[in-house]
């Protein structure tokens, strides 16, 4: 079959990877020079630890696929680094203990470590904390490198073409095939069209399927200069327990009831996540904002909070912050849906809304769509 995939982000590219892997031909269209949205404005985390029970099997499959991809395409920067969620209060410790004793703990790779064992696993953590929830299944890819590397790999198959600076304007499904018309007057013929628009819910996407059950979420993040030493795992703080459904339970209810969370963290719905890039710098975030219209500028208070927490856990000053940015991602609001798939016609589908799980789940979602559509 010949597929046209609209959207050059991780979801579109993962669908291209799945289709190419099954012997099909793919033409991928991206309106920017390359993906510039949530795909590159994230941590690059393949995050198993906090996924809900309903998502766990799919997440573990995606983790497996990322490792396979990393073997074929080393430039994606796959690293089975694991993670440590560091706890600083008795309430956070209770959540970590419950997670380590849960029925899914073995599948997730959970182990609760005391402070000394945390420092053995990750010697860069010399700060103040009670314990750490270790998750060995969590992994990292290089978000700014992954997509160019994957496109180069796909191009090498001889069955993939990428068109940058190309905006799809309309799609015609004739019944025997589909045609995608772009903003340069070109027509791309296809047996199947997959529109993976990211957070662009209007325009062509709305014309195809109307209003779909998704919302946009805004975040703020930052990047430091090289740390000067290895940070051997990804690092999270106890506030992350509040936002990941895999930790839900009475212990999280008690955590949300106590008042130890700072006013800034509560206002901006914050957690600390910290990942070391291959160049040695740290990607640090993040915030959550759900009500539009979003501000066009960034707020400094969250960055001050993230710096304070990171320095408390590391026991040292952070290197200079060299970049700050905001990003917007698409999140399904259907609690039963990991991603929103809407059928516009027999040959045209819209796929969006993985939320902050796009990098984690991308390969498995591409595989899942291929199965659903009998590709």
From TrEMBL:
Cofactor dependence: FAD
User: Which key words are in the record?
Assistant: Flavoprotein, Oxidoreductase
Q: Which domain of life is it from?
A: Bacteria
Stored InterPro entries: FAD-dep_OxRdtase, FAD-dependent_OxRdtase_HpnW, FAD/NAD-bd_sf
FAD dependent oxidoreductase domain location: 3-372
Q: Cross-referenced Gene3D superfamilies, in alphabetical order?
A: D-Amino Acid Oxidase, subunit A, domain 2, FAD/NAD(P)-binding domain
Q: Which residues form a coiled coil?
A: none
Q: Which Pfam families match?
A: DAO
Family that this chain belongs to:
Belongs to the DadA oxidoreductase family.
Protein name, please? FAD dependent oxidoreductase TIGR03364
